[in-house]
Specification:
Elements (H helix, E strand, L loop, with lengths): L2 E5 L32 H5 L7 E5 L17 E6 L10 E7 L7 E11 L1 H7 L17 E9 L11 E5 L17 E5 L3 E3 L6 H5 L2 H13 L7 E5 L4 H13 L4 E6 L4 H7 L3 E4 L12 E6 L4 H4 L3 E9 L8 E2 L7 H13 L17 H8 L8 E3 L4
Helix pairs in contact: 4-5
Length: about 375
């Protein structure tokens, strides 16, 4: 079975009644869950020498063997009823399972992943376009289809899928996200999970790999071009390196990271690994066709792009020729990239402090917000 790399760095007020609940089921108060250590299963999947560990793929789990007739009326879900830091998240054990639209599938979530946008949304930075409170957060997930809408054409019960559940992360995001036992998502936003990776690895991919892909597309990246990735060890950056090299045929890939993460950059295919704690990339003589800035150094990035080149900016100020975009979730993009995942040419990178168990969502968010994660922060298994 294919082994995959995981780098190791050892107001809209609304009451809880906004979640519809069956009349016959008493409402339970939101309650926090005591911290627990990462599961032995997650620990067993991590091995290897200093600076890296190996995650062995396992394509399915008995824990998600659910059919439509088994779907309960309520579920466990993490939620917040006010904006704030990670402490506003509480575990609610009686949230109604979301209804399934005609073009949607209901997925029994096996694993979910956190993204910086989840934190920004929870802190209230997108109030103008947000769904009503309380909110079940989470965009990325992997799991098993347990129910299909009447207009669903290509998916069926029992299919293992993964995807990013909102077409646009900031425009009308779903009130019922992926940090729950079940989530409803449009068929067009998900794809079949590659058989050679497990649910935890798959859950960490959608938003990051779609952002990496769309950024490269918008920059006009193609075979023979060079690229510098700022923040190459992060969730998006680690996939930009791999897509540029393995999918687009880059002539040269350079990337920045801190000292302990340089070997990760090289293992992912970077030709040049720049230690930003020791060297400033804008003082170096090299110029690049594209600079992919995932860390907010746009003013420096434009100094090292070739004339006629592009700078993809994910955060921070935008200086021409830099540009920013909001990624569009698209299951067809995932399907297109699946062969590269199946073959191992593109590898999911899961931060080795995880996967965090479902009981440790608050701790996982707190860790994500340190900015020190390598690859993706993943929650698995989801009960």
């Amino acid at each position: 079975m294919q082994a995959f790399l995981a780098y190791s760095i050892l107001p809209n007020p609304c009451s809880r009644s906004c979640f519809p609940r069956p009349a016959t089921r008493p409402q339970l108060l939101l309650s926090s869950v005591p911290a627990a250590r990462t599961s032995d299963a997650a620990t067993a999947r991590r091995c290897g020498g200093p600076g890296r560990s190996v995650v062995t793929a396992a394509s399915s789990s008995p824990a998600v063997a659910v059919t439509a007739t088994d779907v309960p009326g309520t579920m466990k879900a993490w939620a917040y009823e006010e904006y704030g830091d990670a402490s506003v998240l509480k575990l609610d054990e009686a949230v109604s399972v979301p209804a399934v639209g005609e073009d949607q599938v209901l997925v029994k979530v096996a694993a979910a992943a956190l993204n910086p946008v989840d934190s920004k949304r929870r802190m209230g930075k997108f109030k103008a376009t947000d769904s009503p409170l309380p909110t079940v957060p989470g965009y990325d997930m992997a799991g098993v289809v347990v129910k299909v809408g009447s207009q669903v054409k290509n998916l069926k019960e029992g299919d293992e899928v993964y995807g990013h559940i909102s077409e646009k992360v900031l425009e009308g995001p779903k009130q019922f996200g992926s940090l729950a036992e079940y989530t409803a998502v449009e068929e067009k936003l998900v794809a079949l999970k590659p058989k050679s990776i497990d649910f935890a690895q798959a859950a960490g991919l959608p938003l990051a790999i779609e952002t990496a892909h769309e950024g490269l597309e918008r920059a006009g990246f193609s075979a023979g071009k060079s690229i510098l990735v700022l923040g190459g060890a992060g969730g998006v950056g680690s996939l930009v390196i791999q897509l540029a090299k393995q999918v687009y045929g880059a002539s040269k890939v350079a990337a920045t990271a801190s000292t302990p993460k340089l070997e990760l950059l090289k293992s992912l295919g970077a030709d040049v690994a720049i230690d930003y704690t020791k060297d400033s990339f804008d003082d170096m003589p090299d110029k690049y066709d594209v600079v992919f800035d995932a860390v907010g150094q746009g003013e420096k990035a434009v100094k090292v792009v070739k004339e006629g080149g592009s700078v993809v900016v994910l955060t921070g100020a935008v200086t021409p020729p830099g540009f920013r975009f909001v990624v569009t979730s698209d299951g067809s993009v995932l399907a297109k990239l699946n062969p590269y995942l199946e073959s191992g040419k593109v590898k999911p990178v899961v931060d080795p402090k995880g996967p965090f168990p479902f009981s440790q969502v608050v701790e996982a968010f707190s860790y994500l917000e340190t900015g020190r994660a390598a690859g993706k922060v993943v929650i698995s298994p989801v009960p």
